[in-house]
Amino acid sequence: MDDKKWEKLAALGGVVFVVLNLVGIIAPGSPPSADDTNDEVLKWFVDNASGIKIAALMPGLSIIALVWWFGSLWRRMSKAENGNHRLSVVALVGLAASGALYLASVSVVATVAIQVDEVGADPAKFFYVLSAVLLSMAGPFLAVHLLGVNAIALRSGFLPKWVGYLGVFSAVLQASSLLGATTDADPATLLGFAAFITWSVWILVVSIHMWRTAEVN
After folding, report:
1. In Å, how far are 12, 13, 72, 74, 102 from 105, measured between CA atoms?
2. What is the helix (H) or strand (E) element at residue 215, kind and residue range?
3. Alpha helices in the chain (DSSP H)
4. How many beta carbons lie within 10 A of that of residue 40, not counting itself?
5. What is the predicted pLDDT for the residue at 2?
6. Cβ atoms of 211 and 11 closer than 8 Å
7. pLDDT surpassing 60 at residue 46
8. Confidence grade of residue 216 (pLDDT, cut at 50, 70, 90)
9. In this predicted model, what pLDDT tens digit does every residue of 158-204 receive, in sequence order?
């Protein structure tokens, strides 16, 4: 397989990442709201244990696709920076840190689902909120990743300008999702969801651009 075909396959990694994570969001059903009691949160874990376990598999699998995708994106960023790598490293560190927090958040929810027969209502609510806080803490790191990539894009043009501005907008939303680390109110959850959707759209657009512009290097 020539280099161009590998580049196209890597570009599709971003699409796979988004699809798997959407499955992961849908599988557990509607999540508890801020007004739900501890007993209602525990009931959600009991009723949706299988879906939660499926949802836990999706991020782990999706990370494989995302790393493959970012490898090709790194190659393009490196060329755009003429081998300097300053912002490329910033983007890499931000993505790695956010990914670690994301997987930690998923792991907390999955652990409760696995041990649901041993967990009471109070611990179930506590760990559910903990998972949400961990996910919120990933937002600023993801914002760093997005700002690093799109700063290079806006400066060098290796991505279309409008894609760069979309990425900056997504970075602002990701940073704002840190609000979820201070409250479990529903608006904070909705803000985090909006940040994820915007980032997913950006990934899909970048993936399509990478696929269309793949070349032999």
Report:
1. 26, 22, 27, 26, 5
2. none
3. 3-26, 38-47, 49-80, 86-114, 121-156, 161-176, 186-212
4. 14
5. 59
6. yes
7. yes
8. low
9. 999 999 999 999 999 999 998 888 887 878 888 888 999 999 999 99
